[in-house]
């Protein structure tokens, strides 16, 4: 959520800032703004609620110029969606600030600054940063030392960029809990919360670490750690491709990304799996030695990634003979937990910057886990840098807020991890060969599954007047039902819940009537007959069901049950296959509801605050 772009150059940086904001639109936001400094000290600010294009139009009409500037897309936390609450924020028309994160002690700071005569023009926590830095400047400090002093008073998370009207040749940035990256140019340098924003102007990046403060001019980048000591950070050459401006002929990014899944899964498998098993060092140097010692796995994640972890637990315990716990990161980090001997901690995140997951990783390191592995889509992200091992999912840039291809590549990664851990824990040869064969068939099976689009589009019309729904699954399909419910509520705003089918009699049956669609995932596996009994329970109570079933599962449709045949697939990959029709269902229902599919209300792509 929230996006930061900044630049220090000799040329006018307005278009660079605006293009950077456009490339961060996928993260979710509700207002945008830009502040520009010219060499003569003139400070200009333009802010707008709504889309970045609204800001771009206002900037074009103003003919604003500046060789040093900062820009921001805001996702409201403190204060409503108003122009006054949009970033950048000023102090005394001298200091300009953009900020991602939350200053938790802002009320105390606000009261202290008000007593010193500062007047607040917004309801945000961010404005306290501007006034605190200004107060430090009044004592004769330069911008760098003022920021270094100011950050010692902040509690919470911040990625912030600060300009001083009286020193237009530089900006100062600070990172605590919220990511920032510096982009290196020729005679110019840049700052952003995500390297995607800067790909048009540079491929060379420095990722700031926790507690870093940096002073950036056109020709220099000086970085200081949390103790104020000068440090060197690695310069990374990025090869990321970004196609945020290209929907590839699809109506929405989400639909494009759904249809990319055969390709990205093929990429995730490429050179990692052989005809008989995993290629060497798939999970990184030293992974094999770690895996030989693993007796327990603790998975930590949020949202869609949590559902991937839930699915993986079934695989790891069934095939790899390794015990596994899965927990929501925001719960894990705030409770006392017991660390099992020889435990591997696994974090999952599309962005690698999810605040609760990152905090949980840091907490777990102190708790004594044997090693940490992250499954992530963004090279160079905080989770990748701070974990012992990293497995990149290779899903490519995912622009739609509702995750699709990131999820299926996470599941693909977990099947490969199941092979790796199973190898050290007595996995049956038949299970190993079955998973390997299933993975080889997976891209083609995904393509076959996408061919049933028309039937799903037709049945979506029956959800036009619905406000609630239930999703049912058994075994490793239960987390897939959870993911299906999440997708539907995210983008269509229909209330949706998921249950393990065996739980119907323990409460959910009370909700069944002809106004409550019940969506069932029904592969042809050992739990099918149990699932059919659950379906009959719903049918007997007048429920309307939509069953996504293996074509060999022998469901017969009637006025109370629509059956959508899904291609037959081997058991290990069934959760991945059955994810696609649920994604398509949520997409087509959202179209009928007329919602913003790619940027659903109140949500953000990368959740970098608690």
UniProtKB/TrEMBL annotation:
It is found in: Cytoplasm. It is an enzyme of class 2 (transferase). Its EC number is 2.6.1.16. GO terms for cellular component: cytosol. One of its GO terms (molecular function) is carbohydrate derivative binding. It holds the Pfam family GATase_6. The keyword Zinc-finger does not apply. One of its GO terms (biological process) is protein N-linked glycosylation. Homodimer. Catalyzes the first step in hexosamine metabolism, converting fructose-6P into glucosamine-6P using glutamine as a nitrogen source. The keyword NAD does not apply. Keywords: Aminotransferase, Cytoplasm, Glutamine amidotransferase, Repeat, Transferase. It catalyses: D-fructose 6-phosphate + L-glutamine = D-glucosamine 6-phosphate + L-glutamate. Transmembrane segments: none annotated. Residues 286-427, 459-600 form the SIS domain. PROSITE patterns: GATASE_TYPE_2, SIS. Residues 2-219 form the Glutamine amidotransferase type-2 domain. The active site is at residues 2, 605. NCBIfam families: glmS (TIGR01135), PRK00331.1 (NF001484). This is Glutamine--fructose-6-phosphate aminotransferase [isomerizing]. It comes from Alteromonas genovensis.
């Amino acid at each position: 959520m929230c996006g930061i772009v900044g630049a220090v150059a000799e040329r006018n940086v307005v278009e660079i800032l605006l293009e950077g904001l456009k490339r961060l639109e996928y993260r979710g936001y509700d207002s945008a703004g830009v502040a520009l400094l010219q060499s003569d000290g003139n400070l200009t600010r333009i802010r707008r609620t709504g889309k970045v294009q609204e800001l771009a139009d206002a900037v074009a009409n103003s003919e604003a110029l500046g060789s040093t500037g900062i820009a921001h897309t805001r996702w409201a936390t403190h204060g409503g969606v108003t122009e006054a609450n949009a970033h950048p924020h000023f102090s005394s028309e001298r200091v300009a600030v953009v900020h991602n994160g939350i200053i938790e002690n802002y009320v105390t700071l606000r009261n202290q600054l008000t007593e010193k005569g500062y007047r607040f023009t917004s309801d945000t926590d961010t404005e306290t940063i501007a006034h605190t830095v200004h107060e430090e400047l009044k004592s004769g400090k330069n911008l760098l030392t003022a920021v270094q002093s100011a950050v010692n008073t902040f509690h919470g998370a911040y990625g912030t960029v600060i300009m001083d009207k009286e020193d237009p040749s530089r900006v100062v940035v600070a990172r605590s809990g919220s990511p920032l990256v510096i982009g290196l140019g020729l005679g110019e340098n840049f700052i952003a919360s995500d390297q995607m924003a800067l790909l048009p102007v540079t491929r060379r990046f420095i990722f700031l670490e926790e507690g870093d403060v940096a002073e950036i001019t056109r020709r220099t980048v000086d970085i200081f750690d949390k103790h104020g000591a000068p440090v060197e950070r690695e310069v990374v050459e990025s090869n990321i491709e970004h196609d945020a401006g290209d929907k590839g002929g699809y109506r929405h990014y989400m639909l494009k990304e759904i249809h990319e899944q055969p390709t990205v899964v093929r990429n995730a498998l490429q050179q990692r799996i052989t005809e008989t098993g995993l290629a060497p060092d798939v999970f990184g140097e030293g992974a094999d030695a770690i895996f030989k010692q693993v007796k327990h796995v603790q998975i930590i994640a949020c949202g869609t990634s949590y559902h991937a972890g839930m699915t993986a637990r079934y695989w790891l315990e069934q095939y790899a003979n390794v015990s596994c716990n899965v927990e929501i990161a925001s719960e894990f980090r705030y409770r006392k937990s017991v660390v099992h001997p020889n435990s591997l901690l696994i974090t999952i995140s599309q962005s690698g910057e999810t605040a609760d997951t990152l905090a949980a990783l840091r907490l777990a390191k102190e708790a004594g886990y044997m090693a940490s592995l992250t499954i992530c889509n963004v090279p160079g992200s905080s989770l990748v840098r701070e974990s012992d091992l990293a497995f990149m999912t290779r899903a490519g840039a995912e622009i739609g807020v509702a995750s699709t291809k990131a999820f299926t590549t996470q599941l693909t990664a977990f099947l490969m991890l199941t092979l790796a851990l199973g190898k050290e824990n007595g996995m049956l040869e038949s299970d190993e060969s079955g998973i390997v064969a299933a993975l080889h068939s997976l891209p083609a099976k995904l393509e076959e599954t996408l061919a049933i689009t028309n039937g799903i589009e037709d049945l979506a019309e029956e959800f036009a007047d619905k406000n609630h729904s239930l999703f049912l699954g058994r075994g490793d399909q239960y987390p897939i039902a959870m993911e299906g419910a999440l997708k539907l509520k995210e983008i269509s705003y229909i209330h949706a819940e998921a249950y393990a089918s065996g739980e119907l009699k323990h409460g959910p049956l009370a909700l069944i009537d002809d106004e409550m669609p019940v969506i069932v995932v029904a592969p042809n596996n050992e739990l099918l007959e149990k699932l059919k009994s659950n379906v009959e329970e719903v049918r007997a109570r007048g429920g309307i069901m939509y069953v996504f079933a293996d074509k060999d599962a022998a469901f017969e449709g009637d006025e109370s049950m629509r059956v959508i045949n899904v291609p037959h697939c081997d058991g290990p990959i069934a959760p991945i296959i059955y994810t696609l029709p649920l994604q398509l269902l949520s997409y087509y229902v959202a179209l009928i509801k007329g919602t913003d599919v790619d940027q659903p209300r109140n949500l953000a792509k990368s959740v970098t605050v608690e």
